[in-house]
Amino acid sequence: MTRGFLEPLRGGKVILGHVADQDQYLEEHDQAVWEDWASYWAFCEGLFAHVTKATMEELEIVMMRVSSPLVLLDQPRPNAAFSLLKLYDYLADQPIPPLLADYASPVVDALPPAEPELGYRALAHVNPSYGLADSQRGILHRVLGQLPGSILAVTGPPGTGKTSLIQSMVANLWVNHALAEREPPVVVVTSTNNQALLNVMHSFSRGTDGEDAFASRWLPKVSGFGLFCPSHAQVETLKQQKVLYTTDWEKGFPEILGKKDYLVEAETVFMENLAAQGAPHFDRMDDVVAWLHEQLRGSCEFFAQFDPGEQAERARESARLSGEVAALETKVATLKGEIKRIGRIQRKWLANQAVALGDILREKLSKSFVEKRNRALFLGLGVTMPPELDLGDDSGLGRYFDYHLQQYRQELEQAEVAHEAALTQRAAWLAEEERVAQAAAAFEDIGSADVQMRLDTGPRRQAFWWATHYWEARWLADRLKAADGGVRKRKKSVAYQQNRWWAIAKLTPCLGATTYSVPKFFNLSDKPLSGFIDWLIIDEAGQVAPELAGAGIALAKRAVVIGDEYQIAPVAGLPRHIEQGNRRECGLNDHDLEFEACGLMVTEGSAMKAADFKQRRRGVRPQATMLLEHYRCVPEVIAFCNQSVYGGRLIAKRKPLEKRCLPAMGYAHVPGHTKRRKQGSLHNEIEAEVIISWLVARAEELCEFYGGRPMSELVAVVTPYAAQAQTLRRRARQEIMLKDLTIGTIHVMQGDERPVVLFSSVVAGEETASFINSDVAMLNVAVSRAQDSFLVFGDMNVFAAGEGHTANLARNHLFADQANEIRDFKLPKKLLLRRSGAKVRHLTDTQTHMAYLARVFEAARERILLVSPFISIRALMEADLLHHIEEAVQRGREVLVYTDAFLDLARTGSGKPTLKPNAAEGRAALAKVGVQVREINNIHSKTLCMDRRVLIEGSFNWLSAVRRGPYCRYEAGLCYADDHCEVLAARIDQLADFFEKKWLEDQKKR
């Protein structure tokens, strides 16, 4: 059956069943060939019935009807994976590109070294208001140091600035290539998530233009820095959103640039903008390019010194110059000392000669006499002469002294010249340091941590715009030469194709395409441009199946894989047993465990898992490549995700809201009924009705609180179940205020955000909320999309009863404060006990609830069952409530109170939690008058039952609610009353059994 109709889905309006049921059937009926049509048709009917839980005649689909059978002729259909498959077919007969070979192998080789000279030099920034955070900057440095053949895995939890990081990566690579006067870098951002790609494209359109002509594009009809390469179906949407695009080289942005009159207009507009910046007049565009490059180089030289690596380099250079001057000074002094010492020895030696005796007499002196005389002289002077020197040869000694004096004088002269040169060089260096110090004076009033921020929004942003205009000039120069009859390359040549991309990259450095489209755009006559993409950036890589990412990786020199393993995993289109069969076919059946571990499995892997596996095996610490600063959610919301999956490493950067209209982590306890469609998906009509009616009631207040924005921009409603999403959408279509509201399964919010996210948990009664712990990513995605408020609507008893780490955390955050509870909703009269015949009344305020409570204790004949998560002595003393309870007990009525075992505990200090004084007094007072008080773990019902005749359910905390003050009117409840209604009586019995069973289970655990 087609995968697009089976849960789990990324949306989908028709659900036929669950993919797990199909996989089970296919594994149990593993057959590829059938004997005849009848046996094949029996197989198909069996599969259909197993998955849909109905025959083809019995199948019912909400909002649809079964029509007459149709025969659909097999017609060619567009295949999104066509280009991807062609690429893999081509590569099957070719040497595997290096980057793909590393990515696709479970074997882990040594990590390629980084380029240190680039690693610390951040040269550019785009955003005029905000600089990079510390973790973003550290990862940027790693990207700039990447060598060809390397893949960098970046863990990017939601709201941590992944798009800003991508923007900065592209900008820095663009400026680096401009400084080196190379061709522009070809940077492709890809993903299977269209929303993620559009976010990146929009980021290169919004906030890039500045407040003056310098920080604006100097070419007409060029806006932003991103070019999207979409499918034809997306073109109209991109036009409406004013995103630059191309579907081929004849349409979209390239079509505009290729018009005959565009070049003349572009040159005129560019030169006008250049002149406005005070540039000299130029006759040749090449001279403009050279001048702009000089401006860029000067801009980068100014701020590079503030980078830690540059500071260290300058410190080393300063130390080297000072050391060189000191060494030369020492050498000059040493040489002067040697000259003086040797001259003194020479003079003493000459004075010791028998000068008075003639030359003839000296010649008659014996050699031994001369040697003794000289030895005595040198010994008396404390001088040790070289052992090889003949002390009996006066003429040799004379030559020795003359030679060394001459040699030292020459060395002294050279040393003095070098010393002067070193002094001059050091003086120039000190002057430069002084200039730098004066230029950096603007940064003295801020801490070192903020210097980089100031540099980002100042000099680095300026460098980005100099590079922008440099590339614009390069593009113009190339076009003008081509127009003048420059060298033309064959359209079918690799060089021609590469030059087209380089021309585009000179104007739009960020190219965007889905993983399916990348092979389509980077090929030549069905031959891929392997290794042509300089950097491939895979965004939301946790959702990208490993085989989809591999195609783009085959075309790239380097890859940066950005994602989060705790987001919604890719939907596998292949059953596990078929994947195992494919591996057997390829001779890989002995490597199952390796493929599972390294994230390369089609059914369970992702590009993020595969890249992260390699990186960890190579010894890179996970935190070294993790974005840590979180900007989307208020601290109270992101704290859940931080504790649930991120080990407390995230740093919340937003401040708590000073004014609120909704709690940060809130809940509405909605008692309802879960229904399971035959196809397996759950839905809860009561819950859907409550959510939609509550949104309608609060819409005006919410829109006003958020400055008049429409509800579609403020609220999203998500649920784990596709059937519930359908129910919610169907109900929302009836309300004009909720037009275009985002409603769906968790997948619809992947890559998106809203101030308020409502979570419809669906499960109720004795159903189990297995989604809480079975898929940690589900709640993580849902919560992390809420900027200000995350609200759970559902049966909180079921939600609270879940076991496991995630369930415990959810309870701790949702039930941390009574103020988190939402009470101002209405339960639908007809849905809770549909067709029961019982009389139904809405209770809408505190006074009405209190009046009914007193009446129950007066009118009860046998038993009163009351469920109140909190108990307070203050509430019991209001309106003589405790007295009414005591009188009922004295009349022989059984009064049974269920309350939560933890919600009333005081959690201050490091000691064991104890009951709050009000709660302790309240429980003691109830016990004293004969009430049975039973504690249940994590109960959140607010239920009141009288005999088998009255049932009240809603939001009112019977034994703790605030009786006075601004919130006392916000209560909602439904009262069902009838002396002879079997449906009502059965429901009361069911509730009594449920609470008693839960109490007995908890007793055993204690």
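Above is the first protein from milestone M3; the second protein from the same milestone is given next.
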Amino acid sequence: MEELHESLEDVLLFTLDDLLGEDFKRFKHKLSFSYLEEKDPIPWSKLKDAHTLDVLRLLLEAYGEQENYVELLLKRRSDLPKRGHEMMAVERRHREMKTNPKDGPEVDLENLFHPHPEGENSKTVLLLGPSGVGKTTAAWKFMLDWASDKLWLTKFDYAFYISCNALRCGPKLMSATEMILNGCPPGMVSMEDVLANQESLLLIVDGFEDLKLCDDPAHTLNKDPHRKQEVVNLLMGLLRKKIFPKCHLLVTTRPMGVRPLLKCLRSPLLVDVLGFDPLHRKEYFHRFFPNTGQANQIFELVQRNETLFRMCFLPATCWVVGSVFQQNPQAELLQDIPETATLTEIHLRLLLTFLGTNSKPSHLEDLCALAKDGILQGTLVFREEELKERGLDCYLASDPPSASQEVLRQDVRVETLFKFIHLGFQELFAALFYLLDTKTTRTPYQDLFGDQKECKSKYLMLIHFLYGLSNVERMSVLQESWSFKLSETKVSPELLRWVDQEAKAHSFKREEDLLELCHCVYEMKDGVFARKAMKNVHDLDLRTQLLTKLDLDALLFCLSAVEALNSIRLSGCEFGPRRFRQLLTGFLKSSEIQLFLCLPISSLPVSVCLPNFHRLNRCGLSPTSCKDLAPITMANARLTGLDLGENPLEDSGVFYLCEWLLQPTCPLQTLRLPSCNLTAAVCRPLSQVLESSSSLLELHLGANPLGDGGAKQLCQGLDHPSSRLLHSCGLTAGACEGLASVLETSETLVELNLGDNSLGDEGVRQLCQGLRQRHCKLQRLIPQVGGWAKTSADVQPVLCLLLFRATGSTEVDRTGRNPALAPRSLLTLVVLLSSGTMPWPFAFSLASAEPIFFFPSGPWSTTKIKSFEP
């Protein structure tokens, strides 16, 4: 540890020695107001007369001899990031990792250039992530560890940091050698040695998206590293390995810049920078606040609100929260954030508390215009000249800057560049621009809503905040704090027009867009607007979305605004009894409900009237849940379908259901109970249901070990309903005698699924006896190959022929019924081929006078088949 301390101190001292005259003064000036490593600035009174060694001591005292770096979560990815809002995409990735921790292998700085698991060793690594997630910090950490002899000492002899922001503000022409030596003191590095040892050269290119490359300049590139040329051409030459072809590259970019970048890079390793996981969020606050008690108190406050805690995956958000409590330990606006607070409300509370509740940003209209233009143009970094042109000189560096000026922060490396301290704040100011009474002559909202594709990605959060700021109460609070005049142009009609445009483009059939619509409507909390907006939604299908508490709040509000729905489909929701009761009124407006992998619903009100088809797959329902469910279903005359598959109901749970099913008023037509841990014990009461029910048409009992004894009991009731499915029920030949009898006598049995049952030759022969009978009404037999593959090659063609003869049909195929034929006149043989095995491949040649069956051993003519009699 001692050796590391000396190495780090040497690096700092070596760097400070290179700052001479005016540069050293500027460096001290910056230390007096910069929150480096999220620590307080060093007071100017201590820095004013400090010499090199004094500054070194102050740096070590202020920032500590140990590292203040909090580990960032890095994960490999194998595909391109989807288009969409970059911060929302990463937050969604954190949710997915919570349910699937193995989602993508983790990497760290130490093994970025290690061989891939496939054995390949990439010399180019691409770090992807939204603004404020820590890409630049990771790049600096890499450089610092290398300079401190902690990382890659034997792999890289030279490492150079290239800031694309700095290139934008630098000379238009430079050579490759000038570009990489830009930050090095003269004479420190021998360029001849670098060129001779390119294998040990690492180039870190930070912020590629800032260059905004549109054209491919490769054809104008000169490969001479000493020749001056346009900076863009030069950088593209480095990325394409036209210059320094054997070097290693570490490139950082926001997702918006990844597609043009991939055209340049050779087989890059893609790594997502995902910010802080929950444990490192806690570590961050403990590093920010030296007092352990204070750190715990603030972390618990942040963790108390699920939405704010999820936002803290972003280090920039953690820094804002820490700064707020550092300035004002009470911070009332953050102490009492309600659980139902929206994204707009939380961002607004953070901003107001950070600036001071009554501290209006200077030149608010111009600041909002700057933010808006930046979002629409994809710009997060602004030149000093741009601020001056817009009359925002007050945001240029002062000594020290006021609280209201802190919303724009000077770049640490390039002091002529400025950016908003948080992307969310820039988007919030951009949304506010459309609500202010400005003197700008323009077509309202045209630049925002004109291009639908752009709205889905770059502008998504801006539009979200525009809905949120349109809330009457929220805008009243903001006006009271900042005293500005609102535009006379009403925003609601424009927002409603945008919803209609999106609906016509079928956008809300995509689950992400549908969920975002719910959030936007919830942000406004205007019942009249909600009813108009939700008339465009007929199906609420959010099965692939991992819904949070805030998502469910938005869904609850939108369900209250709809009159009727065709269907609601949800998955993985953490309901609980209270939340389910809240949502139930909205659920009952739908004709169909599907809930999959939702947490147990322990009790429901007896008076509930369920829709006509209800799915509760894998919802953790227990036998006791069936006891609660039975009276609810009894009270509902509309319920015709119930799917309780993959719930551990066990036999006792089905006994409760049978009490309801035996009621003469029970309207149920379809009951699905696959994989419910049922045994033969349930077959007797279910058989009684089959015998007595006048409505039940389908009963699914697949993947339950009923056995032959259970099947024989079911056979007593199988001649009444129209469809009985016994897929994968552990049946053998012993069950086939009873089934054959049912086939002979049943006037209504039209479908039978016996897949994945080991019936064997004898069982199939018995079934054939039933199939040959004149009174057999079977239309669909599903013999999945998993269990029937054990039948011999002689029995298989006989069964095919019997099925073919049964109707005299001339058309049968693998896929199911031919829609051109009447259902009663066609017997469909469905053969579901399992992966890798084809014991039953067959086809009918319609061009031939007689059908030909194709089996593994070759074609069988009907003559050969006729010679075999079961």
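Note on the second protein: The CA atoms of residues 11 and 777 lie 88 Å apart.
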